Give the backbone structure.
Amino acid sequence: MKRLLIVSLFVSLKLSAQDATISVDVSKPTAPVSPDLHGIFFEEISHGGEGGLYAELIQNRGFEESRIPPGCSLDSGWLSPPATPHYGTGKVIDWKMKWEPVNQWPAWSLQTEGKSKASISLDIQHPLNNATPQSLKVVIESLGKDQRVSVVNEGFWGIRVDEGAEYNLTFYTRTDNYRAPVEAYLIGSDKKVLATSILKTIAGKDWMKHTCVLKATDADEKAKFFLTFTGVGTVWIDFVSLFPKKTFKSRPNGMRPELANYLAELKPAFIRWPGGCFVEGISTESAPNWKKSLGPIEERPGTYSPWGYWSSDGIGYHEFLQFCEDIHSDAMYVFNCGVSCEMRSGVFLSDEKVPGILADILDGIEYAIGPVNSKWGALRAKNGHPAPFPLKYVEVGNEQIGERYGKRFNIFYKAIKEKYPQLEILAAMGIAHLDKRTVQSITKMDIADEHAYKGIYWPMINYDWYDKYERKDFKLYVGEYACNSGVGNGNMMAALNDATFILGMEKNSDMITMSSYAPLLENVNDTDWPVNLIRFNNSKSFARISYYAIKMLNENKATTNLNTAVELKKQDDKSVGYPGKIGLSTWDTQAEFKDIEITQANKVVYKSDFNNHKSDWDLKGGKWSVNDGALAQTIDGAWPMAVLKDLNLDTYVLKLKARKTGGPNAFMFPLAIKDDSNYLRVHIGAWWNRVCAFEMISDGADAMVTQPVNLKEPIETNRWYAVEIHVNKSSIECFLDGTLLMTYNEPPRFFSIAGKDEKTGELVIKIVNAKAQVTTTKIQLNNALSLLPEGRAITLSANESTDENSFDNPTQFTPKEEVLADISNDFEYTCKPWSITILRIKAK
Ligand code: AHR
């Protein structure tokens, strides 16, 4: 963003026939833009914290990772929460998850030299403390001459060691007949010793704490940590922690600097923490408890993340609040309201548990903002922070929903508001948009938190989604959003969709006052969720293009929106169209297809004859046969496909007859088939034969691209229906028995909003051009005072919609800033292909 280039190339006063016009009425302010609009949401998922943001280098430092989460039981490798009725269905759940730690001491191993004899085992006798019952017992039976035995930790898929860097090592031991020294090493992947420290004696029946500094004389990205025993005897070890001295803001027990910097540089208005499903737990007993995340780190029991691993809670409640303060963000604490994740155990604790939960949350608030002479405020001061933390929001549960939740919310709202009227209290809304039943059962809330995970093009097709929301007496927070299917691991197309979604939120910022992308962080060695904002391993990281889109849109927020109209002259995008093969398909349903005719420009290009030419079709999955001249798919299962070979069409009309012969759904027609994992799908009688819809399948992931249309009547079994699908250049129409059922209209790929930044006196125009071509744009600023001829253009663009940043090229696609010249009330700007642009224009 630093280099300024004159963009006269893209700006021309001579107005040619433009592809688009953006007209801004500078005299007509519309919605105010909330300064709190863009925040971040942190959750312990995909090792975002443990082995990620949290700078600890030893994985499983307390040997607790094989501990069964509270309230759960283990049976033949499956972990089950208590068998209680699910609050949605009332039936006892049978949800369980695979419990598969590699062994009892994940990330640790034993290494013996020569004929030395030694063993390791987990021990729960004489725990270091009650909160962390497990330790590792190392029995060294015999050692050959000059031979040693080591316990080795692999870190979080390797330990990055930097030459000259210092690492604080802490560990605890107790011993039985062990009198020799212990050596600590960092050893590189080529077995080179990178750092050493020798502890002369560790002998002692009781737990003893040892600390030393390992100073690296060389570097390696995949080093391991060795604790090496040079004598015989028995040693119990626990809480082995290796912490780089260099952490974010040099905080002890701090954060990995470059990951924390990504977050700080987003300048988030707030941080939502600690989840997500993490807040809910796989059972209510395993849900996080802020009190247990305070104090000495070796005494924190940790929290089992529903994403399948333990968090040591090194980043506990105090560290979270401190981080908010460090990066000047407000804090939003999400607490468990006695309900576990509805996708998992769905436990709803009875009302008599509410006073206890409420007392706990009130204590938590007191810890964050209470006076130093209050019980919890005093503990905060004792923990080094007498001043209150910036806690501004509390959220009652995550993704809870329904009347029962609404009633519970009312209890929390009243009690919290009574004691802390300055706090804003958020209600959850389930996994998607505002839930009517929940809203109706809530007496009063400050902010509703709806979530919006969407597939490719959804934000473009539904650009007016929030325009249509009825304004109520509460604000809206889109607490988790992302375009996360059909976009690879999160490419430029994801960023264009995310940016369009953000424009949709910003123009409705009178109602949507807050938002946060999700998930935030992903250690690529253990991914729990397909598309995440910042990706890293133990040594490298990069932020996806969406990160830079959010950053630039956040940095360039207007204070008030202005009336803006976009006129798109032509939809000439070469990337639009539906070329590819044509198919027939079903989903857990049996069906027959016959009399297939395909015409192109009124010329028949294909007519089916299954009796003689079944081999025209490539039959994949399912069980296909010819029955009375029809091609029949006769078994259950997902997505068997018959694909018409050798015919690759662009625009055409497909006519056929189809009849359902069994199963819950009806027909599917894959079109524009590029390969088995990439095509567009027409559903007739989907989701238990209730609706019709268009879906995009990209890299095997399905995303609905139209709102489902309800079928008047379900598709009848054993009745032939006439299906007609018109594939046009930028739309697809689907007819059933001669009646138009639904249309897929290619969404516009060009969006813009404009606003005024009252702080700087600038006009801010934001443009998304999700096209493979440039869009020459007439920018008309109506009723504007005279403008300075020079402004700024900030552009984030890529060469292809599939482009992504990567470990090897982490900043390949980042915003670039240029001088915008020759500005007038009516000028032309050429938007680059696949681009997000911000124009900043100043009045004289
Ligand atoms: O962000 C990943 C998950 O998505 C969150 O844990 C949950 O709130 C949502 O369903």
